[in-house]
Amino acid sequence: MLLIKNGRVLDPASGSDAPRDILLDGDRIAAVAPAGQLDARAKGAEIFDAAKFIVAPGFIDLHCHLREPGGEASETIETGTRAAAAGGFTAICPMPNTRPVNDNASVTRSIVERAAAVSPVRVWPIGAASIGSKGEALAEIAAMKEVGIVAVSDDGRPIANAKLLRQIMDYCRALDLPVIDHCEDSSLFAGAVMREGKQSVRLGLRGMPAATESLAVARDVQVGELTNCRLHIAHLSARASLELVRSAKAKGLPVTCEVTPHHFTLTDEDVQYDTRFKMNPPLASREDRDALIAGLADGTVDAIATDHAPHEAALKEVEFDRAAFGITGFESAIGLGLELVHAGKISLMRMVELFTAGPARVLGMQRRVAENDPGDITIFSTDVPWTFDVSKTASKSRNSPFDGRSFRGGPVATIVTGKIVYRREG
Ligand SMILES: [Zn+2]
Ligand SMILES: [Zn+2]
Fold first, then answer.
1. What is the CA(1)–ligand 1 centre distance, in A?
2. So where are the chain's domains?
3. CA distance 283 to 262
4. Which numbered ligand comes closest to the C-alpha of 97?
5. How far is the CA of 48 from the centre of ligand 2 (A)?
6. N or C: which end of the chain has fewer CB within 10 A?
7. Shortest-distance ligand to the CA of residue 233
8. Distance between CA atoms of 374 and 368, rounded to whole angstroms?
9. Nearest CA to 378 among 349, 410, 340, 346?
C-alpha cells in the first residue's frame, strides 16, 4: 500500500481541486478522502508526503518515438520509457516508424513484451495504418489491435492517398480505433527544412508554407466526415489547421488534435543554424504560436503531446539542411506547460486536463483520480526552480533545444500501477 498525503489533488474529469489523501492498494486507487481520514486504514502503508505539490491523474503522452526495434543507437524502449517516467508520464504511445515498421502483430507483440520486461510506464503502441507506412495497402490493423495497439498512424509521413485514407478510416471505424495523421502535403514539403517566412529567407533555408499542413487537415476532415471515423491530427502547428479543427468540432465531427510543447513555446524566429531547432512540422510563426495557445485555452486542442523524437548525435551534428527532423521532449514537457500557466495563458486545471483526461478521451479511455481506477498518479511542483541539463537525461539522445532552460515547477514523482517508478532527487 502507498498513501499519498497532504497533496492538492486536481482531477479534471470531475473538476475537483481540493486537498486530499490517496490510498493505493495493489495496482488500483483504493480510496480518496480529505486529509487524515485514511490514516487508520493505511496502517503499514508507505507514505509519500505530497505537501506543496500537485497530485494529478497519471499523465499520458499520445505521441513519441522509442526507436526500438532498429534504431537503438538513438533510443531503446528501456531508455525512452525511463525518460518518460522522469518527465512525469505514466503511459506513452510510441509511433510505428521503427525498423521494421510496426505494421503487423508480431512486431506489436515484441514491443509489448519488451515494454513489459523493462518499462517503468505503460506503453500503448500505435500501429501503422499502411504496410511499411508506404501508403499503398492496409496494414494488419485488426491483428495488431488484438495485441494492444490503441490507434493507427503512418507518422513520419502523411497518408497521401485519399482513397487509401478512406479505406483505413472505414476499417478503423468498424474497429473503433482513432486514425492519427501526420498532416502534410508532400508537394509543398519537398526539400524544405523550416517554415517559409521572413526567417527562412534571412537564413537562406528552404521553407514550407503553413498550407503544407492545413491542406492535408482540410482533406482529412472531409474524408473523416465520409466515414465517421475518429480522426486525430498529430502535432498541429498552424492557425489555419486549428480553425479547420474548430469548425469540424462545431459540426459535431469526431475530430481531435494535439499540440507539442515546442510549438506552443518557440517560433521560427528561434531557428538559427542550430539543428536542435529542426523538427517536422517546423516551428511556426508568432501568429500561429499565439493561435495554438488560444486553442489550448479554449478547448479546441485536446492534448499536449511531446513527439519525443530522439536522434543520436551523428544524425544531428551535421549541417542544418542534412540533419534529421525531431527533438526529445519527455522531460521538459511539464516545465513548458507550466510556463503557460505562470504566464496566465491557461489555468492549472486545464494544463492537467491536456495531459490526462484530454489524451485519454482521444483514445476512448478515461483518466481520473477515483476509487477503483488504475493506480497511475503524476505528482509535480508548480514552483520549485530547476534547470534542464540534457547531459543527465535518461534518454539515449540529447537533441533538445531546451537544454539549460530554467523552469519554475516540474515533475516530482511518477506512480504507475501503485508503484513509485520515478522520484525527483532533492
Ligand atoms: Zn509526425
Ligand atoms: Zn512523430
1. 40
2. 2-55+373-395+402-423, 58-362
3. 8
4. 2
5. 35
6. C
7. 1
8. 9
9. 410
Amino acid found at 373: D
Instruction: Tell me the residues surrounding ligand 1 (ion) with CB < 5 Å.
Output: 155, 182
Same fold yes or no, 2-55+373-395+402-423 and 58-362: no
- Is this prediction's pTM over 0.85? yes
pLDDT in tens, 62-106: 999 999 999 999 999 999 999 999 999 999 999 999 999 999 999
Which string of b and e fits 321-330 if b means at least 16 CB within 10 Å?
eebbbbbbbb
Distances in Å between the Cα of 396 and the Cα atoms of 81, 155, 334, 399 are: 11, 21, 20, 10
How do residues 384-397 score in pLDDT, each as one tens digit?
999 999 999 999 99
Measure 393 CA to ligand 1 centroid, in angstroms.
23
- Strand, helix or coil at 50? coil
Three-class SS state of 59: strand
Q: Quick check: is 307 catalytic?
A: yes
Domain 2-55+373-395+402-423, CATH homologous superfamily name and number: Urease, subunit C, domain 1 (2.30.40.10)
Active-site residue, from 61, 154, 185, 307? 307
d(CA 32, CA 375): 12
Q: Which ligand is nearest to the CA of 156?
A: 1
Distance between Cα 3 and ligand 1 center (Å): 39
Whole-number Å distance, alpha carbon 93 to ligand 1 midpoint, is 13
Instruction: Pick the closest to residue 282 from 238, 243, 314, 313 (CA basis).
Output: 238
Centre of ligand 2 to C-alpha 336, Å, is 19
- For helices 286-298 and 239-250, the axis angle rounded to 10 degrees is 30
- Domain 58-362, classified CATH 3.20.20.140, yes or no: yes
Ligand nearest to C-alpha 98: 2
Task: Please say whether the beta carbons of 203 and 194 come within 8 A.
Answer: yes
Q: How far apart are CA 238 and CA 150, in angstroms?
A: 26
Cα(117) to centroid of ligand 2, in Å? Answer: 24
pLDDT band at 110 (very low <50, low <70, confident <90, very high): very high
Q: In 78-92, which positions are buried (b, 16+ CB within 10 angstroms) versus exposed (e)?
A: bbbbbbbbbbbbbbb
Contact assessment for residue 367 and residue 58, using Cβ atoms and an 8 Å cutoff: yes
> Quick one: which ligand is closest to 310's CA?
2
Dist. CA 341 → ligand 2 center (Å):
25
pLDDT digits (tens, 9 = 90+) for 261-279: 999 999 999 999 999 999 9
